[in-house]
């Protein structure tokens, strides 16, 4: 029996991530140093681990409600109010999800239909488009490369007008993966002034909010557009809890009442002991990200100095933990082949810019969520490679 043509046809639009393809292509290299993953090299704070252990010992092993523990939603409400001046009611404006990825999936499945379009500033994290495509909708990228990866109100409005009635949502991600770009209060307010004129959802992925280096607090667009914004948050980056898979959807009561339907039938609820750990993180670990952030800042500055000396053009990232560097013009601009050759010759892996869409080609992404020792050795080998290629 041949079932090969019986799948959802939208799956034909989706390929295995180029990040995974690249990783597979170089994974056989002995002792390779990887500055590839968006995963903190720090461990989850001990007080968070102890809270989860205590929950397990207390037999907290049953389902929570679909929206997650009320005490966790209350902790999230307090955390976001204190940190970002946001007001979300715990009882009807917050959903606990299995990581930010499920938060994105539940949100996009909940709002999109076949034929809809979604605007996305690019280059961008490659995880959005496959979800959009699976429901038969389309991503339309806004090229930001000529403006230092910053989306302007003019760019945004032009793209909105071009899409017309087909446009259902705009995705924002800041601090951004892969560029590290983030936005000031004035910039966010200007984008909000455009968006409030149109009946579109604003899906704002702000999981790197605690990792900003400007000296100013992160500003959420939800502060200005509470009725349109679907805010995506999580603890993976802020508390080094990637494997715990705790994310959050925050929005108006009307939007949450719809999204809980897609969330329910995708996953039922997040793991109960992990939710107890998250309560501890949000209540008693409000500043757990600060020492990590300062270490990331040192790593960022070291990489920028070394790579600039080698001829790479870098827009200094103000958030997250990525460097997005332009390959010098006299080297291969095919980022996949450039980094494959580098990996084979020097046993160091970065991520090809092409993994982040057509506007990422010619760039490479380096994750500085790795130890300083690893970073220094990687920069040493990069210098050797560049010098040898010029010989």
Automatic annotation (TrEMBL):
GO terms for biological process: amino acid metabolic process. The keyword NADP does not apply. Its EC number is 2.6.1.-. GO terms for molecular function: pyridoxal phosphate binding; transaminase activity. SUPFAM superfamilies: PLP-dependent transferases. Its cofactor is pyridoxal 5'-phosphate. PROSITE patterns: AA_TRANSFER_CLASS_1. It holds the Pfam family Aminotran_1_2. Keywords: Aminotransferase, Pyridoxal phosphate, Transferase. InterPro entries: Aminotransferase_I/II_large, AspAT/PAT-like, NHTrfase_class1_PyrdxlP-BS, PyrdxlP-dep_Trfase, PyrdxlP-dep_Trfase_major, PyrdxlP-dep_Trfase_small. It comes from the Bacteria. Residues 32-382 form the Aminotransferase class I/classII large domain. The keyword Transferase applies. PANTHER family: AMINOTRANSFERASE, ASPARTATE AMINOTRANSFERASE. Belongs to the class-I pyridoxal-phosphate-dependent aminotransferase family. This is Aminotransferase. It comes from Streptococcus minor. The lineage of its organism: Bacteria, Bacillati, Bacillota, Bacilli, Lactobacillales.
């Amino acid at each position: 029996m041949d079932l090969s043509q019986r799948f959802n046809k939208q799956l034909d639009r989706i390929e295995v991530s180029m990040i995974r393809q690249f990783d597979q292509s170089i994974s056989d290299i002995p002792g390779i140093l990887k500055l590839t993953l968006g995963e903190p090299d720090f461990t989850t704070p001990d007080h968070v681990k102890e809270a989860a252990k205590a929950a397990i010992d207390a037999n907290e092993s049953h389902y929570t409600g679909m929206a997650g523990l009320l005490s966790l939603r209350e902790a999230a409400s307090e955390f976001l109010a204190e940190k970002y001046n946001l007001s979300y009611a715990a009882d009807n404006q917050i959903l606990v999800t299995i990581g930010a990825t499920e938060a994105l999936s539940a949100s996009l499945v909940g709002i999109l239909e076949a034929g809809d379009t979604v605007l996305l500033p690019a280059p961008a994290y490659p995880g959005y488009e496959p979800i959009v495509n699976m429901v038969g909708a389309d991503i339309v990228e806004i090229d930001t490369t000529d403006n230092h990866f910053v989306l302007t109100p003019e760019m945004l409005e032009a793209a909105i007008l071009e899409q017309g009635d087909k446009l259902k949502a705009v995705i924002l991600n800041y601090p951004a993966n892969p560029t590290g770009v983030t936005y000031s209060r004035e910039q966010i307010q200007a984008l909000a002034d455009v968006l409030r004129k149109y009946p579109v959802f604003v899906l704002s992925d702000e999981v790197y909010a605690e990792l900003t280096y400007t000296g100013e607090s992160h500003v959420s667009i939800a502060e200005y557009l509470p009725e349109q914004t679907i805010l995506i948050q999580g603890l993976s980056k802020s508390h080094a809890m990637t494997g715990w898979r705790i994310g959050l959807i925050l929005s108006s009561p009307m939007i949450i009442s719809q999204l809980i339907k897609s969330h329910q039938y995708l996953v039922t609820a997040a793991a109960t002991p992990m939710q107890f750990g998250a309560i501890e993180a949000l209540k008693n670990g409000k500043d757990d990200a600060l020492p990590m952030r300062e270490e990331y800042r040192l790593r960022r500055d070291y990489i920028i100095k070394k790579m600039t000396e080698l001829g790479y053009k870098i827009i200094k990232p103000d958030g997250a933990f990525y460097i997005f560097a332009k390959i010098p013009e006299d080297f291969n601009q095919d980022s996949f082949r450039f980094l494959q050759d580098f990996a084979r010759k020097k046993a160091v892996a970065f991520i090809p810019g092409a993994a982040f869409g057509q506007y990422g080609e010619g760039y490479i992404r380096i994750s500085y969520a790795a130890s300083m020792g690893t970073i220094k050795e990687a920069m040493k080998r990069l210098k050797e490679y560049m010098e040898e290629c010029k010989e």
